[in-house]
Design a protein that fits this description.
Layout lengths: L9 E6 L2 E6 L1 E6 L2 E6 L6 E2 L19
Antiparallel strand pairs: 1-2, 1-5, 3-4
């Protein structure tokens, strides 16, 4: 979803219950969706929930949907 994008064009991924910011390249935008074609690796867990405060290194408790 487009909502995973941060204002600087990055996304947050989860690594060891810690938020990590990743710069990504957007291949296509359409409505509420984006296609990312660079910046993520297989198995990366992209954070889809927007928290009021999110920052690099923040510890979180993941909840699988």
């Amino acid at each position: 979803p487009r909502s995973v994008l941060q204002p600087d064009g990055s996304v947050f991924v989860l690594s060891d219950n810690t938020l990590r910011r990743r710069q990504v390249t957007i291949a296509h935008r359409e409505g509420d969706f984006v296609i990312i074609n660079a910046g993520l690796a297989a198995g990366d867990r992209v954070v889809v929930t927007h928290l009021e405060i999110m920052f690099e290194g923040m510890k979180v408790a993941p909840v699988d949907a």
